[in-house]
Amino acid sequence: MRIALLSELGRFEPPSAEADGQGLWLSAADAETATGWSLKPEGLCRGTVCIPAPPADRDAYVRGGATNIAAFWRRMDAPIGASAAGDIWALGEPAETRAAELASLDAPDFALPDIDGHVHRLSDYRGQKVFLATWASW
Question: pTM for the whole thing?
Answer without folding.
Answer: 0.70
